[in-house]
Amino acid sequence: MDHKPMYRLMKPTLLFALTLLLCSCQPSDAPPQVVRVEAPASQLAPAPAADAQPDIIMKSYSLPEGHTDRTYSVINSLLAWGDNPVGRVSQGPNNTVVVIAPDGIHSGIAALLESIKETPPEKLPSSIEMHYWLVAGKAHVDGSRASVPAELKATLDEVRAAQGRPMDFELVEEVSVLSFDGERASTNGRDSFVSQRLNLLDGYVMAELKIGTQRGQQVETRVRLAPERTLVFGMVGMEPELQGSSGIEIGATKQDVTLYFIVKAHVLDNPAP
To answer: Do 134 and 262 fall within a single domain?
Structure first.
């Protein structure tokens, strides 16, 4: 496993993750607080020789009271960053975690934990319900029976206006996913798949999304979503044999049909414990 890229990225990554963590822990009417985690470069970003292998060390950490779930989520995300994970974290008893990682990574984790001890305790994570629609669109044909849910009408009217021509739309599939703020979730539909990671920040849903069809079309992106507003966040060409929910074939050739990916976020209020 090649750890060198992660050593170079660890410091800015920790700063970003800590900023997100602290902002999400503040009351909605309080300005976000940013805390910089500084440590000697030799601790956060060692530069081993080309032929040297980093020492893998196991350490246990006590998580700050009131920040257990979010802090664990941040550490897990840091260790699993990119295509080459640099370590593993497991939850232990009594608000502890066990981390297996190179020594330089441990220095950064220790600095992160020390910096958040004085921050206000985090609230219970909110639940976020994500609604996804895959909608096929093509040039209008007289007598078309295509239809879509009424709540998408205004959004698709904007698509028509942007295209500057009459269009017909057909619902290919609708998928919903419910998850906690800060967590990753995924699901598979009849013709589609969804993978998401969500974070609430300043009233918006910061979403890392990957959605596509079982036949190869997909969109992978990061977007900022205003709750309760529909957004077209991607579009791709669609195979003619992929059919809508009514079973009506939508296009004659691959160029005839465009597949639109639409999303809406709904933030749920969690009851008090």
So the answer is: yes
Per-residue pLDDT of 24-54, as tens digits, reads 444 444 454 444 545 554 454 555 555 566 7
Residues 92, 142 share a domain? no
* Domain housing 239: 127-268
Q: Using CA atoms, how far apart are residues 256 and 93, in angstroms rounded to an integer?
A: 58
Residues 74 and 193 in one domain: no
Predicted local confidence at residue 112, as pLDDT: 84
Taking the CA atoms of 220, 222, 227 and 230 in sequence, report the sign of the dihedral they define.
negative
Give the tens place of pLDDT for each residue, 190-221: 889 999 999 888 889 999 999 998 888 889 99
Q: Yes or no: say if 263 and 209 are a contact pair by the CB < 8 Å rule.
A: yes
Tell me the C-alpha distance between 43 and 149, whole Å.
55
For residue 122, tell me if it sits in a domain: no
Which residues are within 8 A (CB) of 195 and not within 5 positions of it... i.e. 6 or more apart? 184, 185, 186, 209, 210, 211
